Fold this sequence. Notes:
Strand order of the largest sheet: 2-1-3-4-5-11
Number of helices: 14
Amino acid sequence: xxxxxxxxxxxxxxxxxxxxxxxxxxxxxxxxxxxxxxxxxxxxxxxxxxxxxxxxxxxxxxxxxxxxxxxxxxxxxxxxxxxxxxxxxxxxxxxxxxxxxxxxxxxxxxxxxxxxxxxxxxxxxxxxxxxxxxxxxxxxxxxxxxxxxxxxxxxxxxxxxxxxxxxxxxxxxxxxxxxxxxxxxxxxxxxxxxxxxxxxxxxxxxxxxxxxxxxxxxxxxxxxxxxxxxxxxxxxxxxxxxxxxxxxxxxxxxxxxxxxxxxxxxxxxxxxxxxxxxxxxxxxxxxxxxxxxxxxxxxxxxxxxxxxxxxxxxxxxxxxxxxxxxxxxxxxxxxxxxxxx
Length: 341
């Protein structure tokens, strides 16, 4: 190989130095067991001599890691930066990974093409593990990450049968405490604006709403349930729908603070006073809740703590310190009473 040109060595040069085919080199680099010990030794030696050490080869042949973790958010940039929830998760994850000297790679997946491209990136073993936020019920990515053998932790779960480790908040408790509070203030026509129907968090908060009504001896009226999508616009649309169906409602539990913001705007446009005519409760305890007029009663999620806990679980998986069963952690929520209720 004395005539080799200077520059980064190629896979073909490694194959020539080792005296094997290009496919054999690729199989060795990708950790395949369908390679003889003799060929593996020759490829390993050639890689070392030539200095051919792309990320995947460096790990497979030297047993090292990338020291990088991907945080996947299947949302647009606009939604990422508009919703305080995501920023708090990122803050918690970043703090935990930074303390462990790990690099955080933030990845937005908005299209099927981007998802496929990210799968290829993962298959090349460019990261040591994956954190996924805002997972929907039919999202195949957690299973694909698992099939690749990569450590993974979800923020929330897709269903009660979730096979991947996750960290969640007590969504059922959030809905129940909101309705308990409203009923305790004498409200008896309590409506709810739910989250997306394909997200387990939305189902949990709706279940808590129903449990709260039952505990208060109030009937469940499906006309008082309107679907939202965790956005301000979704809150506006759902609030208009609720007022058309039940103009005499006297309270609303919105399954996110942003939807509560949208609901408040519609209530005011209709000339209704909050909380005089309609009491309002959200979920998250985001900064917007404190700065609304009136300040929003809300159910606080420990969002930044969830981010730190997710990252901590992932780091334990990467280090091989997790147990045989995936971790399933549910963190408590807390009602924060302000002037909107």
